[in-house]
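Example record

The entry below shows one chain as it appears in the dataset: sequence first, then structure tokens.
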Amino acid sequence: MKEESSKHSFLRAWFPLRYKFSDKTHPLQGIMSFILGMISAGALFFSVFLSFKAGGVTAGKYALAVLLGTIMAICGLVLGIVARMKVNCYHLFPDAGIAVNAITLLATWVMITEGYIAG
């Protein structure tokens, strides 16, 4: 018991307890934006990975997954921007959702552009 209390006092010296007294909440649109961003990034990653594993041959189902991922990323980006404009809430999930969705859209755009350039 004594060892456990000394362990907690050591942790509390480095990481003190902080209590938050506020009415702020995480907006549901921001959480949904982050979830949509992670799903679309996963769809893009696995589509590229499975196409690479197949020797560069892209099946229609991988193209459809990228298309649906792009649509989800656009919806997630809009939801993230709407949630970011709310005043009395935390901005962690809207910011993370905007970042993940923007990176996914940028990666999709770069991939399609390089495909057109390569022939």
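Notes for this example: Residues 26 and 90 are 5 Å apart (CA to CA). The chain has a mean pLDDT of 87.
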